[in-house]
Amino acid sequence: MAGDTKNRPVYVISVAAELVDMHPQTLRLYERKGLIRPGRSGGKTRLYSERDIEHLREIRRLTQELGVNLAGVEEVMRLQHQLDDLQDEFESEIERLEGEIEAQSQPQPLPAPGEKPDPLDRPVYVISVAAELVDMHPQTLRLYERKRLIQPGRSGGKTRLYSERDIVHLREIRRLTQELGVNLAGVEEIMRLRQELNHARDRMEGSIARIQRDITDRMTKWRELPAPPPEDEEGETA
């Protein structure tokens, strides 16, 4: 699969450093920080994959173009690794389910239909209450909305209404900016990746559910096929 090719460790550290225009010692530092995860050969030599090269270029963009500090880069790359792991998990699950279809195995149980929306997404707090809950000025919440860091709902009269999930996001933004010193550009990258991660997880669950329904339909049709007509003693169909 394409994902396997991107994960294949092929570049020694000197080649990887040259490809991303960094010093090898910088790559070692990023590894100690957990920003990249190179493989190892049998002799314990670091080997970098195409995905590692992509990550290193992204780190350079964050630090050099956006001015994101190392704490912010750590948050971004942690989320990026989660996305990578989710993609790998998705591809493995698709491969497993395709094997089930081919072997006509018993499908996994389907999710219950008509599930209710997550209560965390229900818009309930007006901006003054939300600002008090997260210890911010309402104007700060409006700024974050313009930056698309949060997306509160609207009442019929267009009043902003914040959900519990929005409150969680705002507290996380405060942690990133006040405790870790991440600039707004870094926060935007982190929140964008978190949203992408959530969407990717939803897409993965939806795709797997569709494949499982397909397995169920195939198995049902297979079971409902009419039985072949009986043969008489001379081997002729009755």
Automatic annotation (TrEMBL):
PROSITE patterns: HTH_MERR_2
Domain annotation HTH merR-type: ranges: 10-79, 124-193
Highest taxon of the lineage: Bacteria
MF GO annotations: DNA binding; DNA-binding transcription factor activity
Location of the region described as Disordered in the Swiss-Prot/TrEMBL record: 100-121, 219-238
UniProt entry keywords in alphabetical sequence: DNA-binding
Pfam families referenced in this protein's UniProt entry, alphabetically: MerR_1
CDD domains: HTH_HspR
UniProt-listed PANTHER family: HTH-TYPE TRANSCRIPTIONAL REGULATOR YFMP, REDOX-CYCLING DRUG-SENSING TRANSCRIPTIONAL ACTIVATOR SOXR
Protein name: Transcriptional regulator, MerR family
